[in-house]
């Protein structure tokens, strides 16, 4: 394949390392690069100079391929950047971005080892280079944490990472900012040294115009265009200047004069016409490879490399190890959440104040007996007069008033014994209850407790004849579940899935956002890590975290809170892990689509309540009105929660539709989210 690629290269391409022709790039409406032409000769140092904001960084990003150009052609070491099968991005290029692009939790040694792994260096090679670079760049000892280094030291570590694998092309964005003059001179000396072999080429941007005199070629850039390009001495001579700075000033003045004379003349016809260039005359509109061959190369190129995935996973694990507090929090948070749910949601209300108005005075009256069966832990009885009780409930002091008439005992006896009784007897033999129904759960509990107390009272009074006073509806032994099943039992499976899902979203949603912001994503990409590899590495390392979370969650719900599990524990674990993967992949979608932390946080939080409510986790799906019910059923957690309840409480297996449907929907969402995230990340890098 290598031979194929080389055979298709145009004659003369070896003379230059980078060639840009008519390159245009805009950010929205802002044109940053306009018909820019630039040539970096092979084996030379190219100093790219220009004022702040003229587009130098943008151009370098286009050269390494992290930004796409709107028009024109760029060739780097023989092929366009990111061309299938090309080692740019990859080992052939060492890129030092303007942002420091370093992992703060890493030591210097971790940083260089990480990039060494990605470039496929052996640990011995990495070690040798590390020793050289630490000495050469005057770095502190290799176990120093990056976050404890000064700005200048970090910049030197970043430069070290770019130099690590002895690349054929070095792309350095402001490597000498914040570096003392002695070290700056040393860096330039090193660059001069490495290009002497003729195999290494360097493009470097700097604010210190005079230091660029050591470059073989300089390009002077302004407003997204190259004003001049050539050896420093030639540029100075052409403008009769004694310094590069002076030559640059003159060029700017000339450019401004010509610009104002031409007024509205189209861009791209300015002083650039006078610039020198190192053109080899190749027609760049021709593809380098034929389409079918390119497609074959691309197919091989998309296969993820384990080497990169392993390097990224080790990176994540090292970072986790360096933040033990955060790791403990990640492991404990789900347990805290599920414990709070089991303790606080779905149980019976306790200590509810109820006023009792009992007009029977005899201690042997039935009313006293009936009240003695009322569950004291849930219902706290306060004996009051009729007026005090009603005033109390109106003032919100009591949740209900239970009233007994003065003939309750005799009327109730008549009701039980006689076949036909008058309405007055029925009324006088009834317990009268006034409820504050503003809290439905408390009101339902009071009704239930009164029914239970009455049943217990009847049982005690009538013994084996109690069936005569029973309702003509008999609830037999339940087929699934138990008579004591409370609301907590319903909520817990859905809550476990929801906690796993949202923690995974939370852990993932910010991952790429922060790495992109700090330039790390681009740096890894230029080092040869593909979007797919980044995605897979993140997925695998987060799987480790959610596995620990799931084990702790299950230990708590099954052993501490004694939730029943009638089905296969393996199925339960697999379903929860798959839901964790849904959370990770959804987090990856957010992370790849959104640029700033605030928006990523808003997106993750924004879906929390709608999903929780619509997935039937805290209230049955059957209560959702119809058009919304369809939406609910399409969500990732609705069928999954139902499946988990069926496994745990009914003991069902995969042969049941309600179980396999939960797995199928979860897998469908996982695939969709992962593909979507990979596509977005690929389109954006
Ligand atoms: N992501 C972006 N979105 C919108 N505009 C951008 C973005 N990045 C850069 N720009 C704009 O593009 C222009 C060129 O920026 P660039 O960073 O390429 O300049 P530069 O020459 O490298 O400057 P400096 O020397 O200060 O680093 C600037 O006006 C900048 O505001």
Automatic annotation (TrEMBL):
It comes from the Eukaryota. Residues 455-684 form the ABC transmembrane type-2 domain. One of its GO terms (molecular function) is ATP hydrolysis activity. It is a multi-pass membrane protein. Residues 18-248 form the ABC transporter domain. Pfam families: ABC2_membrane_3, ABC_tran. It is found in: Membrane. PROSITE patterns: ABC_TM2, ABC_TRANSPORTER_1, ABC_TRANSPORTER_2. The chain crosses the membrane at residues 490-514, 535-561, 567-591, 658-681. GO terms for cellular component: ATP-binding cassette (ABC) transporter complex. InterPro entries: AAA+_ATPase, ABC2_TM, ABC2_TM_bact-type, ABC_2_transport, ABC_transporter-like_ATP-bd, ABC_transporter-like_CS, P-loop_NTPase. Residues 262-279 have a biased composition (Polar residues). Residues 257-285 are annotated as: Disordered. Keywords: ATP-binding, Membrane, Nucleotide-binding, Transmembrane, Transmembrane helix. This is ATP-binding cassette, sub-family H, member 1. It comes from Salarias fasciatus (Jewelled blenny). The gene is abch1.
């Amino acid at each position: 394949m290598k031979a194929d690629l080389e055979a298709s290269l145009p004659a003369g391409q070896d003379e230059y390392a980078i060639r840009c022709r008519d390159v245009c790039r805009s950010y929205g409406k802002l044109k940053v690069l306009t018909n820019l032409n630039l040539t970096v000769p092979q084996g030379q140092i190219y100093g790219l100079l220009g004022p702040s904001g003229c587009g130098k960084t943008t151009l370098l990003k286009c050269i390494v391929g992290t930004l796409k150009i709107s028009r024109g052609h760029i060739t780097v070491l023989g092929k366009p950047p990111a061309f299938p099968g090309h080692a740019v991005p990859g080992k052939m290029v060492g890129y030092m971005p303007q942002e420091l692009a370093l992992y703060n939790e890493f030591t210097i040694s971790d940083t260089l080892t990480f990039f060494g792994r990605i470039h496929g260096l052996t640990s011995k090679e990495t070690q040798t280079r590390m020793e050289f670079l630490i000495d050469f760049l005057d770095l502190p000892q290799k176990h120093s944490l990056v976050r404890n280094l000064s700005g200048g030291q970090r910049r030197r570590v970043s430069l070290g990472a770019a130099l690590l694998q002895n690349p054929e092309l070095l792309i350095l964005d402001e490597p000498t900012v914040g570096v003392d003059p002695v070290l700056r001179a040393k860096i330039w000396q090193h660059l001069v040294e490495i290009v002497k072999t003729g195999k290494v080429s360097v493009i470097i941007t700097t604010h210190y115009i005079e230091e660029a005199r050591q470059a073989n070629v300089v390009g002077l850039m302004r407003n997204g265009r190259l004003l001049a390009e050539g050896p420093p001495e030639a540029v100075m001579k052409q403008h009769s200047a004694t310094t590069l700075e002076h030559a640059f000033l003159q060029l700017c003045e000339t450019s401004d004069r010509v610009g104002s004379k031409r007024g509205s003349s189209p861009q791209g016809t300015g002083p650039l016409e006078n610039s020198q260039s190192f053109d080899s005359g190749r027609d760049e509109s021709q593809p380098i490879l034929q389409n079918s061959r390119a497609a074959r190369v691309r197919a091989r190129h998309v296969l993820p490399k384990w080497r990169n995935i392993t390097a990224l996973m080790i990176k994540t694990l090292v970072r986790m190890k360096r933040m033990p507090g955060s790791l403990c929090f990640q492991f404990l948070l789900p347990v805290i959440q599920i414990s709070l749910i089991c303790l606080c949601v779905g149980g019976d209300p306790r200590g509810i104040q109820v006023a009792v108005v009992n007009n029977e005075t005899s201690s042997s009256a039935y009313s006293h007996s009936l009240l003695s069966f009322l569950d004291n832990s849930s219902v706290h009885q306060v004996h009051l007069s009729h007026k005090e009780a009603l005033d109390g409930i109106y003032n919100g002091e009591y949740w209900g008033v239970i009233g007994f008439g003065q003939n309750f005992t005799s009327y109730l006896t008549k009701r039980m014994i006689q076949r036909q009784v008058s309405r007055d007897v029925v009324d006088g033999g009834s317990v009268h209850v006034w409820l504050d129904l503003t809290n439905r759960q408390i009101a339902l509990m009071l009704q239930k407790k009164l029914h239970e107390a009455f049943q217990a009272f009847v049982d005690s009074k009538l013994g084996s004849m109690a069936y005569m006073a029973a309702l003509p509806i008999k609830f037999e032994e339940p087929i699934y579940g138990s008579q004591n099943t409370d609301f907590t039992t319903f909520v817990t499976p859905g809550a476990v899935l929801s906690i796993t899902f949202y923690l995974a979203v939370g852990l993932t949603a910010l991952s790429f956002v922060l790495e992109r912001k700090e330039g790390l994503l681009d740096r890894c990409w230029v080092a040869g890590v593909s979007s797919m590899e980044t995605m897979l590495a993140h997925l695998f390392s987060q799987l480790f975290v959610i596995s620990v979370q799931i084990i702790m969650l299950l230990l708590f719900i099954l052993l501490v809170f004694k939730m029943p599990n009638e089905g296969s524990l393996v199925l339960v674990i697999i379903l929860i892990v798959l839901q964790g993967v849904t959370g990770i992949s959804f987090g990856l979608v957010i992370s790849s689509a959104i640029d700033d932390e605030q928006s990523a946080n808003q997106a993750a939080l924004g879906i929390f309540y709608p999903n929780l409510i619509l997935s039937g986790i805290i209230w049955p799906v059957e209560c959702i009105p119809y058009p919304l019910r369809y939406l609910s059923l399409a969500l990732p957690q609705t069928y999954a929660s139902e499946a988990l309840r069926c496994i745990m409480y009914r003991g069902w297996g995969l042969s049941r539709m309600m179980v396999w449907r939960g797995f199928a929907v979860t897998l469908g969402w996982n695939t969709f989210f992962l593909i979507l995230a990979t596509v977005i990340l690929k389109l954006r890098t």
